[in-house]
Amino acid sequence: MALHAAAFEMTLGGGDFADIVEHALPDLVDGPTAPEPVEIRDTPRLAVASLDDFPSPEDRRHLEDALRDAMAETGAGRAELHMGSGENVEMVVEVGPDDALLKGLVALALELGTPQVVSQVAGVGQGRTWGAWPFRTSQRHGVLAAAAMPKQADWSTWERTLDDLRQSWDREDKARAGPAYPMLPDLEKRWLTMDEFTAQLELALERNRRDGMKFALHRLLFPAAPNAVDVLAEGLPDQLRDTDRICRPSPQRVVLLTAGARDHFPHVRRRIMNLWQAAWLQVGNERPIPGITDERIEMTGLDDSEAFLARAAEWLAS
To answer: What phi and psi, each to the nearest 5 degrees, are found at residue 82?
Structure first.
C-alpha cells in the first residue's frame, strides 16, 4: 500500500520516486531483495497428505481392467465401483449398460453397511444374480457391485476381488495419511467400528514411530444405565476434537484415542462429564449422578507400543 501511495504521490507532485519510497518505507530500502535460503528437511514433521486424487486416472484404468476380468469370469452384465469419504461417495468406475436393480442394491448396501445379494426367481432372467458388497479402508468406504450374473456363476469371485482391492487401497491410504495423522482431510466425527478403530491405532503407532508424537488411550466405563449412555452416545462425537477417535465395544464402555500432551485431555473429559450429567437427567434418572471410571495408557515412544496395543486389544474385546 505504501509503494502504491508513493507512486501516486510522484505522479501528482513530480517528486523523486526513490526519495519518496525511502521516506515511506525506511526499513525496507536497505533490506534484503532476495529470499533467505530455506533448509529442506528429509522428513517434514507435518505433511498433510491429500487423498483427493485417489483413485488417479491410472488407478481407474487398472480398476476397470479388474472389473472386466471379474465380469468375464462370472458372466456379469454390468459392474460398478463406488468410493468416497464421509457422505461423498461417487461412482468411480462403471462397465456395462445401466441397471436399475443394481442401483437400488448399491444404495441399500451403503445405507445398511451389509452385502446385498438377490436372485431373480421368475421371468426371462430367472436364476440371474445381482450383488453389492460394501467395504471400508482406514480412510475410504464404498461399494463394489455386479449385475445379472447367470445361475451357475460363482459370484464369490466378486468378494475375493474386493478383498484384494481393499487390501491394496488400505495400504495406499495408510501411506498417504501416516505423515499427517491424526489431522486427516475429510474425516467424519463419528463412532468407529472395532476394525476401523484398530486401523486408527496402527496409524497412531506409525506416526509415533516416525517422529515421536504422543498418543493416549482411554477406557471410559459408565454405570449400568443403558438409556443414559445411548443419549450420551448421540451427542459425544460433536464434543470431541478433530484429532480424537472413539469406539463403543459394549453398551457401557467407550474407548477413546487422543493425541498430544496429557494436560490437554481434562478439557475433553470435562465436556464428556457435562454431557453425561445432562444425559442422566434427560432420561428421568434422579440425583446424585454417578461418575465415570477413566483408565488410561500412554504411548510416548516405541518402547510403549507393545503394551499400548495389548491394552487396546483388551479394552476393545467384546
So the answer is: -110, 135
User: Which residue range forms the structural domain that includes residue 90?
Assistant: 57-176
Domain-ending residue, one of 151, 176, 201: 176
**Within this chain, do residues 75 and 171 fall inside the same structural domain, yes or no?**
yes
d(CA 135, CA 92): 14
Per-residue pLDDT tens digits for 210-235: 888 899 999 999 998 889 999 999 99
Is residue 92 within 8 A of residue 63, CB to CB? The reply is yes
Contacts of residue 157, defined as CB under 8 A and 6 or more positions apart, other chains included, come to 70, 73, 74
> Is-contact 47 67, C-beta < 8 A?
no
- Please return the burial class of 40, using the count of CB atoms within 10 Å of its CB with bins 0-12, 13-18 and 19+: exposed
Any domain includes 240: yes
pLDDT in tens, 91-147: 999 999 999 999 999 999 999 889 999 998 887 778 899 999 998 876 778 999 999
How far is it, in rounded angstroms, from Cα 166 to Cα 196? 13
Residue 157 sits in the same domain as residue 190: no
Tally of domains in the chain: 3
